[in-house]
Amino acid sequence: METNQGDPQAHRRALRVRIRDGDAGAFGELFDAYARSVYNHAYRLTGDWSAAEDMVSLTFLEAWRLRDRLDADGGSLRPWLLGVATNVTRNARRAARRHAAAVARLPRDEAVADFADEVAGRVDDEEQLVLVRAALATLRRGEREVLALCVWSGLSYAAAAEALGVPVGTVRSRLSRARAKLAKRVEPVGGRGQMRGDRTTAVGPTREGNR
Q1: Where does 117-207 show beta strands of DSSP type E?
Q2: What number of other Cβ atoms are within 10 A of residue 85's Cβ?
Q3: For residues 40 and 123, is the Cβ–Cβ distance under 8 A?
């Protein structure tokens, strides 16, 4: 784990080098330090507990595959991992859309299981989740990703830009558009699950601090 033992910068550099060299122990430290952050981010992008768990596994598998591209110098590895998680989630969504399209082409008399009730049963406050999903559905993919990174995961503009591989100005503009769109979604629902301005109260993980 990236702790303040000795020189933090030297420790981070050593950890990066060990991960890049395929040190399984170092990768275990990475998992212990950031698995929860990756899970929270994946949940915010998918809105599904089970899918988020799958994204954690896929993210760390992909991070292991990409370890030789990791720079020896740099700060926290959290932005890099959240960037990997974002890409993994994008790819999973594409695969899901292709699967859905294939299912839609099946003959009408073939039964296709509907797991909507099962998924809804995983959430304590379905009404609140529906509200948040409806608001987030108004955002473009890039806007949702920036919102998840900057607002919920607490990354700086620079760290979010690093995670997504885009300029800082792009992060700022996407976040501004996302906030403006969400500000229009004021739908009172009996006090709970309300959205006010650019703040959303969502079922699920809370915002993490920077590490």
Answers
A1: 195-196, 199-200
A2: 31
A3: no
